[in-house]
Amino acid sequence: MVSARARMSSSWSRACAALGCLALATVTSLASTPAMAQTAKAGQATRTAKVGARNLVDKGEPARASSDAAPRPTALHVKVWRRTVLFGGQVTVTGRLTRAGRNTPMSSRRVELLAKAAGDEGFSVVSGRRTANDGKVQWRVAPRRHTAYRLRHPGSPTTVASRTTAHAVAVRPRLRAALARGAMPVGQATRVRGKLRPVRPGAVVILQRHRDGSWQTTARQRLSPRSRFNFRVHPSKSVRAYYRVVRPADRGHLRATQRAGRVNVYRLRIARIRFNPPGADDRYLNRERVTVVNTGRVGVRLGGWRLHASRSGRTRTLPAYRLHPDGRVKLHSGRGATERGSVHLRGTKPLWANHYGSRARLTDRNRALADRFSYDAPPPLRGLASWYGPGFEGNTTACGNRFDPSDYSLASRELPCGTPVRVVGPEGGVNAVVDDYGPASWTGRRFDLSRATFAAVQHITAGTAQVRVHRR
Questions:
Q1: What are the residues whose beta carbons fall under 8 Å from the beta carbon of 124, sequence distance 6 or more?
Q2: 321-353 tens-digit pLDDT
Q3: What CATH homologous superfamily does 268-375 map to?
């Protein structure tokens, strides 16, 4: 009995001991669980904050980074690739952001481009960009006037702000100028036209001419509302002159100069015209010629010039030929090789018939009149005339023709054979041709007329008559 109770008591003691340990473990577990959970949550939050701060720093975002890390100093470098630019052109501005003292590039950092144009009070932000992986950033800008550029890093909670020195870019205006024509005769004018960019209404531009080894101002003009100019050039003598247009420098732009070109002012004249002689035109075309003389100080290229005969209405274009100062050239109507002092117009018909009363016009490539020539008949020849015929019929004349008293012909000591004339006497006039040489000077007469010619101007019984001989 006693041993049974003892065993029950021992079993109960072991059970109570087991239950006591379980209760103690349960109580201990219940007591320690909230603290451990809170500690674990705090550790996880710390790790998340560190990772988030590291990500924010890598992205260049301010704030929320660890407040224990000190901001790192930075160094910003800039390069402007052009210091002078033509208006409308672009300038490249590059920069690089690094850690100060280490030359380590800093990526994804904000860098701003600042500009200060001529006349502005201070720098203003043009735009902002983030640096690449190598720390570089670049802009392309087109300044409209003198402008200074600099770069600035505004800084962040992890970096210190920095900026560069200013670099100036000068702007040259875009000036255009051109001559209306480069060659013209003395007495005519041409124009120098152009425009300026940027538009500057009322600004002054200067026209200069090169003379005596230097440029000399000849005119000034204010620009129109559309920034255009128009100078009139009127040389008074034969010269070769160079012109240019100058826009003086101002507060916002450099001086601009533009060559307009060269003006050749020539002086040509038609010195003489020789008619196509009688006979077959296709055989004697080259005997019809025009003599042109260069009396100016400038050589002239005759290629493309035109020679026009007003009465026949025919025009010939001159081939390439350079006529030097004080030179002369003969322009032949027919075909042939161009030589020094001789040019052939390659025509198949004469420009002028065998008579007077026409006009010649010589024009350049711009259709400007270089010279005109009036080849009217010279004053008539006046004198005493008689008639001849008896005893001479059928004989050979000095011109090689058979004499016929019934033909309208005459003999003269001054006019060449074949010259067409009009004989006018007291009782009328008639057209005739010089067909003989005479009369002798000792006779006192100036002309000898055929019987038919004399009868047309005076009664045949008169024997002599005072006549006028007009060359046709």
A1: 114, 115, 116
A2: 999 999 999 998 888 888 889 999 988 887 876
A3: Lamin Tail domain (2.60.40.1260)
